[in-house]
């Protein structure tokens, strides 16, 4: 009993010794202020990003509804309605193919959010951007494309993964067992995809060399934290926060900005966690 208490106290002291400097870093780096800037850039990027994804859909077996269904799982209903309506209006007025200059410009605009995120993560590590404008912007575009690829893969996996699993397990007469396993795997898949995205961002975004394992704690925090906060915020808005009655037609925009603001705080805190753990373990190299 005494040994258990000693271990508990040790772990508690470790936690306190980590949380205190983390809060100090969050305050010193003005995470809430930077999150407001990030929310603004996320707002500028969301529609170009969705337009680019939807433009790619004819080259895949997916439909627009598949994209909207993923967003609907996390976004508040009023925001989802506004995104769907705006995107439909924009797409109806667009002409041209995938490789048109308009779509290339759309991809450039979509990378604004990633570019701002890279700057905020550099701030978490207290480093200046040492890469040239072309290299930094190119990396932002590549990370945006990688995120789009992972997003489309996340949409394809549930469909083709299930079909492939049923085909393989049916040869052993265990298709029913696979369906039970798949029911559990579906809930694991989204957090896993999010974790991979955040891990890539936290590893590649800083203008310094870091070890991949140093990016893991922040990626776990951001993945789990973002899902919990998004679902909680969506529940609150749906059941308690009647923004449409208060603000009218701009209620959807206000909800979207609040969602982006909360998401930006979660992502930036993940970067601060990685930075602090990297400093303590000596895994960061300027």
Quickly list its features.
286 residues; mainly alpha; 10 helices; 1% strand
Strand-helix topology:
Layout: H1 2-28, H2 31-56, H3 64-72, H4 77-92, H5 101-124, H6 133-170, H7 175-204, E1 209-210, H8 216-239, H9 243-247, H10 251-281, E2 284-285
Antiparallel strand pairs: 1-2
Transmembrane segments: 38-59, 97-118, 139-161, 181-204, 216-237, 249-271
Organism: Lederbergia lenta (Bacillus lentus)
Keywords: Cell membrane, Membrane, Transmembrane, Transmembrane helix
Walkthrough of the structure:
- This protein has one domain (31-285).
- 27% of the residues are buried.
- Helix 6 runs antiparallel to helix 7 (175-204).
- By secondary structure, it is mainly α.
- It has 10 helices and 2 strands; from the N terminus they run αααααααβαααβ.
In short:
The protein has 286 residues and is an all-alpha fold.
Helicity level = over 70%
Supply the helix-strand structural class. Answer: mainly alpha
Q: What's the multimeric state?
A: single chain
Q: Taking strands numbered 1, 2, ... along the chain, how are they ordered across the largest sheet?
A: 1-2
Counting DSSP H or I runs of 4 or more residues, the number of helices is 10
Separation, N- and C-terminal Cα atoms:
46 Å
Question: Can you give the mean pLDDT?
Answer: 78
Largest sheet: 2 strands, antiparallel
Which term fits the overall shape? globular
- Note poorly predicted spans: none
- What gyration radius follows from the Cα positions, in whole Å? 21 Å
Number of domain modules: 1
Order of helices and strands: HHHHHHHEHHHE
Number of DSSP E strands? 2
Beta-strand content: under 5%
